[in-house]
Amino acid sequence: MRRPSVKRLYALIAVIMISAPVMGWNQSSSVLVNEEGIILTRMDHIVVFASSQKKVDELMRIFREDFQLPVFWGPEGLNVLKGKELKPVHGYSGGIFLGNVTLEFETWEGNDIAERPPVDCGYIGIAFEPAPLEDAIRRLDDKGIKHSEVEPWFAPMPAGSKSLLWELVYLTQFEGTLLKLLSSYSNC
Fold first, then answer.
1. 3-state class of 38 per DSSP?
2. Which of 18, 24, 102, 149 could make a disulfide contact with 45, Cβ separation 3.0–4.6 Å?
3. How far apart, in Å, are the Cα atoms of 179 and each of 47, 48, 176, 182?
4. How far apart are CA 153 and CA 113, in angstroms?
């Protein structure tokens, strides 16, 4: 698979920044959630996968310094517990605020993360904020759209406790893409 050039990445981001408000991907759309059977309320963030922490830092620097865009978080290390089996996973992530959506650069140790594609950099995924997750899953089932089971992600807390960070549901119907529903719960 050919790696996308930096120019193509910039062009894609520009198109998304321009089209997101036009397509109704904004906070105000969440008002309509349960009234019309809506599955998605907005695009939460765009994920660009990197091969290393060094690549995440390089991408963050370009967007922060060259493009003068505000940093939403990090970059910082991520130590989380994934799934019902509470598997420890380690990653590195930083986010750039684009107005209606966040651009996240991330990398994960190992290839055991479903999101971690076997590419150097440039693979892009999109996380959507769902209507209440249970409602969104029911609507996906009603429409025959294939999806994963709910996958909870936790932050380890003192004394062995944990705090739910988010839950993911991958839209598996669209093979070769990374589209996911993301319900966020806390910012630990």
1. coil
2. 102
3. 10, 12, 10, 10
4. 12
Supply 80's token pair.
């989380």
pTM of this structure: 0.70
Beta-sheet pairing, 102-108 with 162-170? unpaired
Count of CB atoms situated within 10 Å of the CB of 185: 14
Domains of the chain: 6-11+38-184 (3.10.180.10)
- Beta-bridged to residue 42, according to DSSP, are 129
Strands (E), 109-150: 121-130
Backbone angles phi, psi at 5, to 5 degrees: -75, 160
Cα–Cα distance measured from residue 184 to residue 188, given in angstroms and rounded to the nearest whole number: 11
The single residue listed with the structure tokens 């493009």 is 67
State the Cα–Cα distance between residues 105 and 46, nearest whole angstrom: 9
* Structure token pair of residue 8: 């193509």
Distance (Å, whole) CA 119 – CA 110? 12
Q: Which two tokens stand for residue 37?
A: 């059977």
Tell me the β-bridge partners of 89.
Answer: 80
